[in-house]
């Protein structure tokens, strides 16, 4: 008998039911009750619940804010190969000025195809934060993120083109891309404002 069968026999809610309940609690602003559910799931090794706990600690939602606890939970999720866990861990480390460490986690997440991390790596290479400044590498990661639907990467590439950073011939293409990206972004935001396509 597997865990799901045991839950059905015992009357315990399934993981999917618990996640739905926790999500509804968050939408109502009842973060402390949602925290209890996510904590239980996170303790059992559910990576995305670990990511959500990290976010709750980072933002002080339902629990006292603690960047150390946020890092702990993001790290646990990232070590379970959660691309979003690695992304959020990278973001936390970057905000603390630990750019080299952030890059390590962004790369792991980007290699899994997670477009927000691909975008962040592209920007890191553009700005030279945690990596040497390198336009070719920046474009590589931004193009990957754009192919995966990331609006911010699309915008960044359009701006590079408008400024002529990838050649003067691309200036017109950049303007068209910018307008197209803007339209796509509006539709994506209206359709699902929590989409990974809108994370930057």
Automatic annotation (TrEMBL):
InterPro entries: Sel1-like, Sel1_AlgK, TPR-like_helical_dom_sf
Alphabetical list of Pfam families matching this protein: Sel1
Keyword Transmembrane part of the UniProt annotation: yes
Keyword Translocase in annotation: no
Membrane-spanning segments: 172-191
Keywords, in A-Z order: Membrane, Transmembrane, Transmembrane helix
Domain of life: Bacteria
Record protein name field: Sel1 repeat family protein
């Amino acid at each position: 008998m597997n865990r799901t069968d045991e839950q059905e026999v015992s009357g315990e809610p399934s993981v999917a039911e618990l996640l739905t309940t926790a999500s509804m609690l968050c939408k109502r602003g009842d973060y402390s009750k949602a925290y209890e559910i996510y904590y239980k799931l996170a303790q059992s090794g559910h990576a995305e619940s670990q990511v959500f706990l990290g976010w709750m600690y980072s933002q002080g939602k339902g629990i006292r804010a603690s960047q150390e606890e946020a890092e702990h939970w993001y790290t646990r999720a990232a070590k379970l190969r959660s691309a979003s866990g690695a992304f959020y861990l990278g973001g936390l480390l970057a905000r603390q000025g630990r750019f080299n460490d952030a890059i390590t986690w962004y790369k792991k997440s980007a290699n899994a195809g997670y477009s927000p991390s691909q975008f962040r790596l592209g920007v890191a290479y553009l700005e030279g934060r945690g990596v040497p400044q390198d336009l070719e590498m920046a474009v590589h990661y931004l193009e990957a993120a754009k192919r995966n639907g990331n609006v911010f990467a699309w915008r960044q590439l359009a701006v590079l083109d408008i400024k002529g950073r990838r050649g003067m011939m691309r200036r017109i293409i950049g303007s068209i891309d910018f307008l197209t990206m803007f339209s796509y972004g509006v539709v994506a935001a209206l359709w699902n404002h929590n989409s990974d396509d809108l994370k930057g």
